[in-house]
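Quick note —
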Amino acid sequence: MRVLRMTARAQAFTATDADRRQTLHRRIRTIVAVTIGYNVIEAVIALSAGTAASSVALIGFGLDSTIEVLSAAAVAWQFTRRDPERWERGTLRVIAVAFFALAAYVLVSSAFALLTRVEVQHSPIGLVITGLSVVIMPFLSWAERRAGRELGSATAVADSKQTLLCTYLSAAVLIGLLANSLFGWWWVDAVAGAVIAVFAVREGVEAWRGDACATSVGMLLEDGDDHPHDDHAH
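Predicted structure written out below.
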C-alpha cells in the first residue's frame, strides 16, 4: 500500500515538474519573441538614424541589434527542437562570426571617422531609441535569465547576457550622442563605436569558445533532476 502511495506521489511530482517546464518553455519563447520584435524595430531606426547623422556608434548599435535578433531567433528555434543541446555549438559559432564582423566594421569606421574628422549630426531619434533601450532591455534580460536559470537552460541564460550587453551599448551610444549634441564633441561618437567593438570581440570570443554556454541544456536538466534526490539524501 505504501509503495502504491509513493508511486502515485512520484507520478504527480513528475507531471507537475513537466508542466512547470512547459510553462518555462512558453515563457522563454514569449520573452524571445518580444526581444526579436523590439530589436528589429530598434535596428531599422538605429541604422536609418545613424546613416542620416553620420554616427558610427549609432550604426554599430543598429548592427548589434541585428545580432541580438539572430541570437534570440536561434534560441527560439532551438526550443522547438527535440534535441536542443545538439544545435548549441553550431549556433554559437554563427553568432561569434557575426560579432567579429561587427567589431571589424565598427573599428574601421571609427578609425576613419577620427582620421577624417567626420562630424556627427544631432539625432533626436537616436537619442530616443537608445534611451528606450536603456530602460527596456534590462527587464527583458532579467526575465529571460530568471526563467533560464530555473529551467536549467544555458542558451537562454547566455542570450539574456547578450540582451544585457545591449543595455551597456545603448548607454555608451547615448552618452556619445548627448556629448555631441550638448558640447559638440564629435569624437566621442567614434570612441563609443570603439567601445562597441571591444564588447563585440569579447562576446564573439566567448561564443566561439562556448564559454557562455559550455554546459549543454540536456546536462543542466539532468543535473537539475538530480538535485532534489541529493537534498533528500542529506
